[in-house]
Amino acid sequence: MSKLPHRTGPGQTYFTSSATWDRRELFRVPQTAELLVQRILACRDKGAYLLHEFVVMPNHSHLLITPSENTSLEKAIQLIKGGFSHEFHKGAENRTEIWQVGFHDWTIRDGGDYRAKVGYIHMNPVRSRLVERAEEWSFGSACGKYLLDPVPEKFRS
Q1: CA distance 77 to 15
Q2: Which end of the chain has fewer CB atoms within 10 angstroms, the N or the C?
Q3: Residue ranges of the alpha helices (H) in 14-99?
Q4: 14-155: what CATH class?
Q5: Which residues of 129-138 are buried (b: 16+ CB within 10 A; e: fewer)?
Q6: How far apart are CA 101 and CA 126, in angstroms?
Q7: Where are the domains of the chain?
């Protein structure tokens, strides 16, 4: 399988999607979902990107991020997926595949596009019938318990 092409540019904000291998519901286990959440936050805390919104679903994740000047979008996703895989496999005898190869991205174009992606991220657990209200899903930014970076100036209205 070939890699998906990514058009990335400095200062751009992206909506990304990464899926598990064979769409296995690896993140249905709360400890595993929390491990991915902590990895997403740790990469942000180290300055790889600004984290605007995110959600970890049973078999995929979505991010709304702005990579730092020194980090490409591909590197930001690699830090998350590779770092998570390393932590997940620590001490495990089974080195099962975790992630589907590559990821999908969408360059945010304007404030309306940004707000639409925020709504999509927040409502993903509701549409999937995991919770009744977005705030009830603890593995995403809609719950309000995670520190997020502000909306980029160019998308504020």
Answers
A1: 11
A2: N
A3: 30-45, 73-89
A4: alpha beta
A5: eeeeebeebb
A6: 27
A7: 14-155
